Amino acid sequence: MPKPKLVLLHGWAVHSAIWHSVQKDLSIHFDLHPIDLPGYGDRQAEDGNLGLDQLTDDVLTMAPENAHWVGWSLGTMIAMSAALRQSDRIDSLILVSPTPMFMQAEDWKHGITLPALENLQSRFHSDYATALKRFLLMQAGTDQVARTNAKATWQRLTQSPTPSTGTLDAGLEILKTTDLRRKVQGINVPTRIITCQEDRVIPAAAGQALHQMIPQSTLLELPSGHAPMIEIPRQFVQAISAA
User: Fold this and answer.
1) Rounded distance, CA 41 to CA 157, Å?
2) pTM above 0.85, yes or no
3) Of the candidates 60, 76, 108, 141, which lies 20 to 30 Å from 203 by C-alpha distance?
4) What is the dotted CATH code of the domain comprising 5-241?
5) Could you read off the pLDDT of 28-85 as tens digits, one per residue?
């Protein structure tokens, strides 16, 4: 009997090697389809200077039909956008560290401020490899297994060419301008929302609010920071395979 298909969508500034720590164990349960967004990983030659609609078109073209979709961070916005566009192709959504709106606003306190986003942009522009390593190790904290996974993932990620500033800036522009709060109630596929208790990038409250917006959603909270696939890989695989 064939395994269910699982699409994996990475977040900003990384490519599909972000799943390195869990890919082997996930492959026991699923036929994996990790997708590199344009301008990242194996798709460096392609134009990464794209908006949310174009990235949605891109992944819908690359993803197999009748698959479960896992999105992480920025990848959750693309996954939700795809489900709103072609729900018949998607068996379920699994949204890890999700948010319908990344930026803070008067009516949305679960985002980051513009100065924080600009600081992130500056650090990745000036020294991508160092900024990425710092980010991954910050998520890992002091746990030695998590730090080992973070270093191994960083090595895999930096084997590919550095994303261009245009690609990085285009992704940040999506994060800066996207607001899906009034659209996600139209998602009509089973959706599992996985929030992380110690997430300092996208707070768990954002995912909790999203759960209230999506009618067919369930909510699970993991004891980790923003990157549970690195920090608590065994629990992450369990959470995905149970969805």
Assistant:
1) 8
2) yes
3) 60
4) 3.40.50.1820
5) 999 999 999 999 998 988 999 999 999 999 999 999 999 999 999 999 999 999 999 9
